[in-house]
């Protein structure tokens, strides 16, 4: 038996005025998700615990059965792994923006004019450097985004970011958030790295081209989300399942990579609202031939929630419903299909909230309940009632016949 584990990021919502008091998921025409709900058992899930607002990173740890209070050390390690850097336990990782500063130390643009090309050249100027005996690994992502790893002894992740989060403000000072030698050492390395980057970037070819094109220079680094890479027990070890991730967003690929999942790069998968979600579903279905557990992630629903665009979210959910039609066949042939969100991103809040998310588990021998549509209110009447995110994986394992007996 195999499982497709599908997460529509931030799909869960609250009633919207524009949708006559329905949520986008309730208002959307979703014949395929409704059919899967009809064939399965539904419920509501508190991702972390009732009343706790989840970030996507901790939410995914919980959904993969890991206690985020134990394993979450910051976003950096996930972002670095998501860019394809090999992250080892103990590494200090951080997210980085290429940015623009002026001579007075003011942040002119946190994204270096949304730089699109030439960032690999900038990353290469820093990748492989050694500062105070510590190795620097540096990789560019999409647009202004990149990530770095510090690898060596006596380092700390208790470091304050230099990112003031707003343009027109001076840089924050990179400083230690704890009084230890390792934090002081790390601060010195980060300061040196920024200085080296600023010197090298001045004469970089990409910046010469940007001067000619009258574009903002990528002349400094904003570094944030420091985290020491945790020692995460592998998904294979914990579940005995060969697993794979089909996602566009770097964070989700990064979580999967740190769990030891294989990661498939799908052409056209951007991790945004324009992502080729049909292609992602195609790759996910094909992956079932070689994997026991396929994690499929679609991000666009969360973006519409953050924008407060209820109608756009409803239409995007309808688009998702069309492309996931093959999942109906997956549960009809007896494999397991799980559909849920990693948190609510209600359009009226334009941000994540603690509201529990609807979840369906269909296929196999699950105890089918009376729920016939997929939605926040409908799933509240389901047979799985209300449970915590960290228990989802064990519920899946048990539905797959892989549950372990406790006691004799
Ligand atoms: Zn999310
Ligand atoms: Zn979000």
What can you see in these coordinates?
It contains 16 helices and 16 strands. It has helices at residues 24-27, 31-38, 56-63, 68-71, 76-82, 119-126, 181-202, 205-212, 235-239, 250-258, 277-287, 300-307, 310-323, 325-332, 376-379, 392-399, and strands at residues 3-8, 40-46, 92-101, 107-109, 130-131, 134-140, 145-151, 159-160, 175-176, 220-228, 243-246, 262-264, 293-298, 336-340, 357-362, 386-388. The strands form three sheets. The chain has an eight-stranded mixed β-sheet, sandwiched between helices. Strands 3, 4, 5, 6, 7 and 10 form a six-stranded antiparallel β-sheet that branches. The chain has a two-stranded antiparallel ribbon with strand order 8-9. A hairpin with a 5-residue loop joins strand 3 and strand 4. The chain is globular and about 65 Å long. It starts with a strand and ends in a 9-residue tail after the last helix. The relative contact order is 0.24. The chain binds zinc ion (2 copies). The site of one zinc ion has 7 residues, from helix 3.
């Amino acid at each position: 038996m195999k499982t497709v584990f599908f997460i529509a990021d931030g799909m869960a919502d609250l009633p919207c005025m524009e949708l006559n008091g329905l949520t986008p998921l309730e208002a959307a025409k979703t014949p395929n998700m409704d059919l899967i709900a009809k064939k399965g058992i539904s419920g509501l899930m508190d991702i972390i615990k009732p009343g706790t607002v989840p970030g996507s990173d901790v939410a995914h740890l919980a959904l993969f059965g890991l206690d985020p209070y134990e394993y979450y050390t910051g976003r950096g390690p996930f972002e670095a792994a998501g860019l394809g850097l090999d992250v080892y336990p103990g590494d200090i990782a951080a997210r980085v923006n290429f940015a623009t500063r002026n001579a007075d130390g003011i942040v002119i643009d946190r994204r270096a004019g949304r730089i699109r090309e030439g960032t690999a050249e900038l990353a290469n100027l820093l990748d492989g450097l050694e500062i105070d005996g510590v190795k620097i690994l540096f990789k560019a992502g999409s647009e202004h985004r990149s990530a770095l790893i510090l690898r060596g002894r006596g380092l700390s992740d208790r470091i304050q970011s230099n990112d003031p989060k707003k343009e027109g403000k001076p840089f924050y000072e990179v400083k230690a958030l704890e009084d230890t030698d390792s934090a002081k050492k790390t601060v010195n390395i980060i300061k040196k790295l920024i200085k080296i980057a600023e010197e090298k970037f001045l004469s970089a070819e990409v910046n010469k081209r940007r001067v000619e094109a009258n574009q903002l220079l990528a002349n400094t680094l904003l570094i944030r989300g420091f985290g020491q890479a945790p020692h995460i027990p592998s998904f294979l070890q914990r579940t005995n399942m060969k697993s794979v991730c089909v996602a566009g967003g770097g964070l989700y690929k990064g979580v999967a990579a740190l769990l030891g999942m294989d990661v498939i790069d799908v052409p056209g998968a951007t991790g945004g609202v324009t992502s080729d979600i049909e292609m992602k579903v195609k790759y996910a279905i094909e992956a079932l031939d070689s994997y026991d557990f396929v994690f499929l992630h679609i991000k666009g629903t969360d973006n519409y929630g953050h924008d407060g665009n209820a109608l756009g979210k409803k239409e995007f959910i309808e688009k998702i419903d069309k492309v996931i039609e093959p999942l109906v066949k997956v549960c009809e042939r007896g494999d397991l299909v799980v559909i849920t969100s990693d948190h609510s991103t209600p359009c009226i809040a334009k941000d994540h909230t603690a509201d529990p998310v609807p979840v369906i588990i269909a296929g196999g021998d699950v105890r089918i309940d009376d729920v016939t549509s997929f939605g926040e209110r409908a799933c509240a009447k389901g047979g799985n009632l209300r449970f915590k995110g960290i228990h989802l994986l064990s519920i899946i394992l048990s539905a797959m016949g892989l549950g372990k007996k406790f006691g004799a």
